[in-house]
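In practice, a research group might receive sequence data for several interacting partners and want a quick structural hypothesis before committing to experiments. The following worked case mirrors that situation: the sequences arrive first, and a predicted assembly follows.
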Amino acid sequence: MTATTALPAFVPMGGSTLGRIGRVLRTDRLAAIGLALIVLVVVLAVFGPWLAPFPAQGYGETNVADRNLAPSALHWFGTDQLGRDILSRVIIGTGPALTISLLVVAIAAAIGIPLGAIAGYRGGWLDEVLMRITEVFQAFPPLLLAMVTVAILGPSLTNAGLALAISWWPWYARLVRAEARSLRDRPFVEAARSAGVPAWRILPRHILRNCMTPVLVQATVDIGAVVLAAGSLAFIGLGAQPPAPDWGLMVAEGRGQIFTAWWISTFPGLAIFVTVLGFNLLGDSLRDFFDPRQVKR
Amino acid sequence: MLRFLASRLGTAVLVLFVLTLVVFVMSRVIPGDPAVVYAGPKAPPEELARIREKLGFDQPLIVQYVNYLGGLFTGDWGNSLATKRPVLDELAIRLPATLELLFAAMLLAVVFGVVLGVVAAKRPGRAIDGVIRFLAIGGVSMPAFWLGLLLQVLFVGRLGWLPATGQFSTEVEYVSPVAHVTGFPLLDSLLTGNWIAYSDGLAHLVLPAVTLAAYPLGLIARMTRASMLEVLGQDYVFTASAFGLRDGLIRWKLALKNALPPTMTIVGLAAAYTLTGTFFVEVVFNWPGIGQFAVGAMLAVDYPAIMAITLLGAAGYLIANLVVDLIQARLDPRVRLS
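A structural hypothesis for the assembly, expressed as tokens:
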């Protein structure tokens, strides 16, 4: 921690960002697997209501006559203790899981990026204050901070999302600040400054645009991390509440029957794992490719 | 060195101080009337008034805060609402179980993580490297609570090899109870030669430790691989192999020794993150530690307990980070502590 210095700003390597990502996917099989998993999850999230075999049960309609059925041709993932088709619940749950995760990352980035850019570019007391604030936040495992916040605000999916965003923004602030600091004294920024371009135009044009690659790589990993965190919160009762088709909640609901009806917990948990794995595989490859020196946190 | 330590400890104290303030304000302002939280929604008005006076809620917030801070220093962290016993006592009796679990998990993660990392670095880009990378990222992506349940289904339900939950079997607690020596149950059973309890405790430890180890193991394997590759590219490794040193010797002694400092950094950070992991693993395995207590406290909105856990968690995290910095400076003389 003490030894780490600010990362050198990303040096463009030629070709568009999309072209470079294409190269990663062609050369790295795990990245391709990751992208395939992400595409699968996104398709399920968007078309879930049409793809689920029993959409009404996915949203919570009970069917007590068919409870705790083992996986079969009709119910691929079996049914839960209220007779709901687990495949449908898992598919319908994809939308909310991805939405909340995207929102959390978007809010964290929307707070962290401008603060980090201004602090890194301006320096001085503003930078000092901001870094002290982020240090306080980071003196704490993000998930524990989120748990405490939800416990005090009251358990719900909204509060869980809010708590996660509060715990996540400092990471973006620090990431962008480090980039902005190293960009600040680069010739093209100095040229703009000496030509009289005001800071409010330099920041978006020269600083933010050149920080975007590491931010996007981080966001890729974080979308998965937030799915995992939100699922964990729901599992212990501090996230989505019944009868929401939430993956973490569904794992918790099946826990009591784990030895008699293993499928109730197994498949929703698998959905979390597959989603997080997809984002982590892709994010890890992108990070290796764009900045091999960066240590994962 | 001393100056570094002093400044880091200063920051740590400041951080903890700010945390007490934030958590205190959150716990007093957000829920509305804390006396209602304490007494329950059906309590009569005179009961509420009595509680307000007894717990000092009728005083200005700033006075309450000063009293709370004073209590922190004198060892009075308040009573748990759920058990009505001092929070510090509740945490103290549960800490050893959590530390034993954490230690076992980190031991597994370091041993297997380093070995996998070194093996992966032997043939970068080849099949074995890809498999290990997939496993490492898989470990990091795995929801701990889900992995725990899967292991229970397999090793308890199907195979019947291991016990499902708890730290010791109920029979063992009656037939061959663990005598108190250090307070760490498994260690005490070993020290007192209580083999029945020791083997029973070990069997109970396997599944939760493996579950908890998945995440740090993945991180450590990735980090070891990366730093091994860096070290293996150095001139002195080339020289050593030119002098005819055996490949295994170069890899496992020469290179690994120099690849360890960055790995140690990630071990510390991974341990700090694994702290949170214990919450979920302890719930799944009914492990009698702090994590399980913490989850219960959060669900029951047990403020004194939540505040104590917050402080303890932050302190543990800060200490882990500090230890990482110190170890790193020790292993790598180029690191300047400033």
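Before designing any experiment, note the following. Chain A touches chain B through 49 residues (CB under 8 Å). Residues 1-13, 292-297 of chain A have pLDDT under 50 and may be disordered.
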